[in-house]
From TrEMBL:
It comes from Priestia endophytica DSM 13796. The keyword Cell inner membrane does not apply. Gene3D superfamilies: 2.40.40.20, 3.40.50.740, ADC-like domains, Dimethylsulfoxide Reductase, domain 2, Formate dehydrogenase/DMSO reductase. The keyword Iron applies. This is Anaerobic selenocysteine-containing dehydrogenase.
Amino acid sequence: MGEIRQSACPLNCWDSCGFHIEVEDGKVRKVDGDPTHPITKGKICGRGRALETRTNSAKRLTVPLKKINGAFEEISWEKALEEISQNLINVKERYGSEAVLHSHDYANNGLLKNLDKRFFNAFGGVTELYGSICWGSGIEAQVWDFGASHSHAPEDILHSKNIVIWGRNVARTNMHLFSYLQEAKKKGATITVIDPIHNATAKLAHHYVSVKPGMDGLLAIAIMKELLEKDVYDKEFIEKYTHGFPDLCKLLDSLTMEEILDKTEVSRDIISLLASLYESGPTSTYLGLGMQRYQNGGNTIRLIDALVALSGNVGINGGGSHFGNTQVGESFNIKELSRQDLKETNRKFSMMTQAKEMMEADEPPIKTVIVTCGNPLTQVPDTNSVHKAFSNVETMIVFEQFMTDTALLADYILPVTTVFEETDIYFSSMYHGYMNYSEKVVEPPGQAKSDLWIWTELSKRLGFFDLFNYTVDEFLEMGLSSLTEKGITLEKLKEKHHILLPIKAVPWEDRRFKTPSGKYEFTSLKASEAGYSGLLSASLPGEVKKEKGKESSRHPYTLLSIHPLRSNHSQHYHVLKGMDKATIDISPDIALERELKNGDRIRVYNDRGVLEGEVKILKEAHPRTVNIDEGRWRTMGETVNVLTSSALSDNGLGSSLYDCVVNIEKL
């Protein structure tokens, strides 16, 4: 048995678990849960355990690489840094700093990963990405409604009489909430799952509601109509603490119940059941990420927020509309770490449409791309367009641990450390409010270096080393400086390993919202200020069209691309057995219609791309629904994102990955 060291999970996940790491002979031997962590309590998922496999993999990149005549050759760190620095200098002098694009995602939740912003701001400002493929629509929607996306403390669920899990497979993506669900059920709470696919969480529930993909907002409208008709909504909250209620009433009056039932494909009895659950609260609503990944995604989240507000479940124990919990990330001094004040200029591309904007960019054109904390060639929608854009850029530099789809296109690959080979603070702005200290426990293989080391070395060559001339601890203290008046210090965090941040356990209980009006806004003033109408609507998905009877069309099925069970997005596909095979889940009606059985090979296609795989017939799912887990690499056959659209959500800050129609054929 080796030495046990405390650490934490870096993955961009709801749970942000505490780890116990077994280290022997300078190697990570095992990753287990930290039983002293107040929320995760020693339980971790397979994705966390697989970080040991990832760290020790023989496939790790361990030396800097440069592409010469189409092939990668080893290059020294000194030469790589000199050439990259000279490239950045030349591009800035000739075209301006905005000719550099920083393409990134959120593969690592480390506090010090924010130092990439510090580097690019000190460089003068580059072309940055805005929005989020993952959850951007929902966050912005709740900013319009509440002023921020804040959730209740995990244990508050035990105050709920009714719990609605809307579009979130907790068993797969939020295992510690699943534990709380089990406890709440034992205490008598009623659990309801609303989802197009009958998932593992639905097995725990008292009620399962199958809704047509993309029609969740209309379902919320139907429930609100019933609450108003029965006169059982929270009149005091509406009158004193909300703005725009008459506009909501006009919307509800504009639709008949029959129209809604037809579009959602939900029965009238189900509407009455759901209305009774919201009427007899406190009722907590846990929202998933999938239903805001449509062109009407922001409006969908806003309509469910409106239902929560109308029914009197805002700012009370056991209530809440739980999507993100950004008050966690807001606790840190990100401003001091990122130094936005240094930026002289910048241009922004949407994370979803970065490929199109790269190819169309002028004054200046994009000449150099630096990719960190992401694998855009797998994860960004409309992969074929992404491949074209990244293939045509003059210079691409990728920070990576493995030869990913994106790294294959690079001119320079810089090998970087894993979580166990660097020190950082980890947290998640999605669920609980604990931050976790994770100290370096092993040396990295070969010449792999941390992102911070690379930024520091580049800063020396670009003339702003003074901004990076700090130790790791000094940077961590910088990030924690906003918390010192609360008695939270790096020294105390090192001692305890996990500390609860000073955030509200029940947001909005004081009825003070962060909106322009200071009230909950059914009609958003912030949206109006940004050029949107601000009104709630009965908007429908862009691609998902209502099929009439058995009438055929070119693309009759809705494609969902949910998170894989064993990998956090694309991060583990290459190190775990069996993940290179594409499984295509189909609803039972499709199997019957197309005479398909388990194991048959089919191709799924639309105008953007084609993917092949083996059929798995779902036991229960909404009719005409297809699912393919996201994250599979192109080099393993194809990624599901060859099929998905890069269209933006209605509020401009999210993706429309689920707003996707396809056809299939047997091979």
